[in-house]
């Protein structure tokens, strides 16, 4: 493994352990077993290295999480049961990889402070909406209509973000897939209820 790859691996380990703001050049160089000057040579700056490491971690985790999620149209399951199972699988991923979820929140915070990063985060959110819409409608992502991405995909991403933040903040009262489905049904009942 060359210095560039060692630095990426070291930065990935530091991000998981310390987060973006608390990871120093010295931390990365020590974890990688290379000189601090190698960071500037290969990546130009600590931030560029951390961004690349962060995106590689999120891509890797996204691939794993995407394989775990169950399409709603799975044979033998009602749509509600499949959606509940999707949530249970997602929440199991959060429990198994809490640092990955914390890093995604960290990425959002960094993008608010560093405008060069924001287009990458925006693109990731758009891909997430499209991917979730594809999973939920059992449609190839490239064939999902824009309106479906902007409705089903957007709401699912908002629900995921909110539920995951609540779960990480209060793990003893973490929701289940059944809780999410029951909550959605209650919200729909409120919206559909006729007021005199």
Automatic annotation (TrEMBL):
Query: One of this protein's Pfam families, by short name?
Result: TetR_N
**Any signal peptide, and if so, which residues?**
none
Spell out the InterPro entries in the cross-references: Homeodomain-like_sf, HTH-type_TetR-like_transc_reg, HTH_TetR, Tet_transcr_reg_TetR-rel_C_sf, TetR_C_31
Domain annotation HTH tetR-type: ranges? 1-61
Q: Which GO terms describe its molecular function?
A: DNA-binding transcription factor activity; transcription cis-regulatory region binding
Q: What are the UniProt keywords, alphabetically?
A: DNA-binding
Q: Does the keyword DNA-binding apply?
A: yes
In this entry, the residue ranges of the DNA-binding region are 24-43
Q: PANTHER family, per this entry?
A: HTH-TYPE TRANSCRIPTIONAL REGULATOR RUTR, TRANSCRIPTIONAL REGULATORY PROTEIN
Q: What is this protein called?
A: DNA-binding transcriptional regulator, AcrR family
